[in-house]
Amino acid sequence: MFETLLTTALVRALNMATHHLEEARRELARTKTYNIAVCTQFLEAARAAVLGLEDELDEILIEAGQVARYGWEERSGLHRRISEYLNRDRLRTPLAESLEGVGACYKFAAQDADGFFQRRATQAQKNEALETLLRHFSELSGFLKSLSATMEYDRVNFAGKSGIDVAELLGIEGLLDDFKDVGKDVETRKREIRTKVEAAQENRQRHGLPLVANTKRVIQELCVTFRVTTMAEPPK
């Protein structure tokens, strides 16, 4: 009835991020140096990871509402999906790796702009590109740090580091668990899940989406300015 784990936003994002990281490594091995083509692939990987974190949460909330209304017998699959999102550090890992790559690109470009940009360009264009990279690197790093702050360990929240709106998801997860004595009958649990889902959807901030859009803009600007051909997307 509901989407399976094989086609979740998290899995799609992980595949996309992994693809772009592999492309970055391949280009780096080919040219033996950091350059715009390598950098844009690291940025694409970061964009995929951030978008996946946001999209997976939206899909989980939609599925939770559906389970509470029409498919209570399928709650075990939803429980597993929430646990996968919270307790496996999957998307934060490629996000961290991509940011390491962007940071390395910026460091190399600051030391050898001609080698990094690999074409004739005005000094003003190079300076602007470096400023843009540094600013965007800071924004992406801030998002990564915010995940760590959200996911700090305590006795209630034992989750990993790849999640948004953790408290809300932990609440839904607990109400789905038949092995937890929450002192509530099934209809009460369903009703509370629906309430939590509606509140979470209404209050969602989606801080990552402007970052995703800005990352795409930065990539396009770099490609146009320095005539970089975007590498092929992975098969869907």
Written description of the protein model:
The chain has 236 residues and is mainly alpha-helical. It has one domain. It is built from nine helices and no strands. Helix 1 runs antiparallel to helix 2 and helix 7 runs antiparallel to helix 8. The two termini are 22 Å apart.
Q: Which overall shape is indicated by the principal axes computed on the Cα atoms? A: elongated
Number of helices: 9
Radius of gyration: 21 Å
* Content of β-strand: under 5%
Order of helices and strands: HHHHHHHHH
**Total number of β-strand segments?**
0
Low-confidence stretches: 1-5, 151-161
Structural category: mainly alpha
The domain tally reads: 1
| Helical content class | over 70%
List the helices and strands and how they pair.
Blueprint: H1 9-31, H2 36-70, H3 75-87, H4 92-111, H5 113-117, H6 123-150, H7 166-176, H8 186-203, H9 208-226
Helix pairs in contact: 1-2, 1-4, 2-3, 2-4, 2-8, 2-9, 3-7, 4-6, 6-9, 7-8
Write a brief structural summary:
By secondary structure, the chain is an all-alpha fold. It contains 9 helices and no strands. The chain has helices at 9-31, 36-70, 75-87, 92-111, 113-117, 123-150, 166-176, 186-203, 208-226.
